[in-house]
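Working notes for the structural subgroup meeting. M.R. asked for a predicted model of this chain before we commit to crystallization trials. I am recording the input and output together here so anyone reviewing the notebook later can reproduce the run.

Input as submitted:
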Amino acid sequence: MKTIRKSLRRRGTALLAASAALGLLAACGGGGSSGTGGGVKDGKTTITMGLYGVMGFKETGLLDEYMKQHPDVEIKADIAGDEQTYYTALQTHLAAGSGLKDIQGIEIGRAKELVDTRADKFVDLAKVPGTDHFLPWKQNQVTGKDGKVIGLGTDIGPMAVCYRKDYFEAAGLPTDREAVAQLWQNDWKKYVTVGKQFKSGYKGGKVAYMDSSSGLFNAMIYGDSQQFYDKSGKLVYRTNPTVTGAWDLASQAATSGLTAKLRQFQPGWDPGLANGTFATTVCPAWMLAHISEKAGPKNKGKWDVAKAPKGANWGGSFLGVMEQSPVKEEAKKLVAWLTAPEQQARLFDKIGNFPSSQKALADPAVADAKSAYFSGAPIGKIFGAAAQEIPDEQVLGRKDGTIKDIFSQGLSLIESQNKSPESAWKTTDERITKAVG
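Returned structure, recorded in token form:
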């Protein structure tokens, strides 16, 4: 059995690195004669990459290893600390047809927009040798109606529930992770019911059951094949029972005093982890590193991980090769190598990025992984099982990320401003209409 080592800060939790972001903008603007910065000169192939956050390839030495194995290849990677800044620059360069890198990172929330509007700018990776190992739903996210695949999957974010064993014990609830999972098995409504039991049973001070209602909302919607859009690209969140049901249950949690009113990764959430102001949080695999860092050594062994009521995914990325790259054949080989099962397993072992490769999920380095911080929880088994539960078809929309953020803000109106669920929904609907049309 392997114990996963403490991870670098994950992409989704990276602080805004202004200097890195500015470096991306400047670097993408020049590009050299090839337009991507890549090319072949004096027998040496240069491949450029545009990445963001902690995708892990440079930080773990994988790029250096590839260059060692291929002495005729030089890889230059520009990394923006903030994905929003990165994507704004990428959109600009896609529109201009210049300033791109040979390889560009793609965040899941941007995948559908790029598939629908910029697929012609990317190389089709559908038939790259040795790339038939990904989870079906992962590759479907970057596959167009014509079958073109614009990226190969890197990590994913299968979800579980992280909980404080000491708080559960004080509230008279089970603490064993399997017994805890049984409390809410197959139904998020049971998760809220357990919260009401916790609230009535816990007498140890001011501790909320969950951090925020928006975390619950996200977990519920991302366990279904369809969220905000249907297959035709039509907005359906107003009538989709997955979304309306998630809103109703999250609103119930917010109005029942079950939340600490702390949105994940927003101001106050990190101190909430450090000070132990909530007992549970819905956690994708990559969040464990952030929790262990912010909750700190004093809380090691107090946290544990239990299976969520239903498998769901939050987060993940891809690597795409640009059509205009003069070294796209070499870039395709590099992307295939970086996303191969062996490299995905190593990235998980080193920094906790959970694999999107089915073969990597079966690797003992992943399948048998445990977390010492989270009471020895078998995180490879728990998150691997969640990844397998996710529907093969995931209907993404062009503005999924924007809409998710607006819904989180809407639930915050209920928690922090005492708005009624009806009033908050109306405001949320108006904001979505304004933002995406």
